[in-house]
Amino acid sequence: MPLNEFDIIKKYFTRQSSHSTVVSTVGDACIGDDCAVVNPAQGKQLVMSMDTLVAGTHFPESATPYQIATRALCTSLSDLAAMGARPLWFTLGLTLPHVSEQWLSEFSRGLFVIADQFNVDLIGGDTTKGPLSVTVQVHGEVNTGAALMRSSAQAGDAVFVTDVVGDGAAALAMLQGANFLDDSLQKYLLARFYQPLPQIAVGESLAPLANAAIDISDGLLADAGHIARASNVVIQLDLEDIPVAEGLKNNTQCTQEQCWQWGLSGGDDYQLLFTMPLHHLEKLRGEIAAQDVTITQIGRVVSAENDQSKVVLMKQQQVCDVAHITNMQGYQHFDA
Ligand code: ADP
Ligand code: MG
User: Fold this and answer.
1) I want to staple 262 with a disulfide (CB 3.0 to 4.6 A). Which of 77, 143, 166, 257 is the partner?
2) What span, in angstroms and rounded, lies between the C-alpha atoms of 200 and 126?
3) Ligand 1 touching residue 140 (CB < 6 A)
4) Does the beta carbon of 126 sit less than 6 angstroms from any atom of ligand 1?
């Protein structure tokens, strides 16, 4: 007999909560009543964000249920990282064309691998029938007043990025048919696409140090533009300092222009772009020493003349033409 909605939820999505902030409403489970009940901590603000992934648009139809689950939760958690928040709970909206236990079991396995890694509890959701889509709403907390906004970049700040950019776009190109003729690079890019691990630890350390932050989902230039506009500043980026994965830089199938284009306007990287006084860098590096992540300075914030906020790309200290390098291509969905 096929599972009904309640059986699915019980079997694949109900686990005991690990957070003391979650109230058990049904026996020792926190899922199953009309709502989840949580106790926010004193002195904290709640931070929340929702993202939907639609099959064929945000992931290829060929993605495995495990891959879909890890991508959905990682990309949502990245928004919490960008606010400097600590993840607490999430809810899951699942629309399925039909019920397959094998699918659900793999989806649930992927989901809880990431949930456990980032210590975030599933506390509820909704399950419906229809074309495959996954919505995740994440909730986190920050010390009151400490959330990292896009709107607080200050002239004089240095601009930094975590890890490397361009992997998301290169992975997308690969999923759409590009062949890098390098198995280890292809494996690396696949992992970057389906498990773009959110920079939660860096975000939490940044909260008291940085002035502004954003996670790179639209592309470095576009997301720098979001900070510049919201903060009414000019952001100068040094093209030659923008970090791209060695495997891509050295790949015979990629030109330097292609790497720059992916890094600047590809999107889907889920790295943090932040502005911070340079003198905090050493403290930040000390705090995240245990993390396997590099921090690279890629530019600076200067004041906007006549309120003209913008992003300026520099090469050898000269302003260079963004359109020429990037061809101004933004994020491309699978159905684009
Ligand atoms: P209601 O009719 O009250 O909205 P539902 O039948 O939609 O209740 O859900 C029953 C319980 O199962 C609720 O506690 C809900 O949060 C939970 N739930 C439903 N779908 C999911 C899911 N995909 N993941 C986690 N919890 C879910
Ligand atoms: Mg419901």
Assistant:
1) 166
2) 26
3) no
4) yes
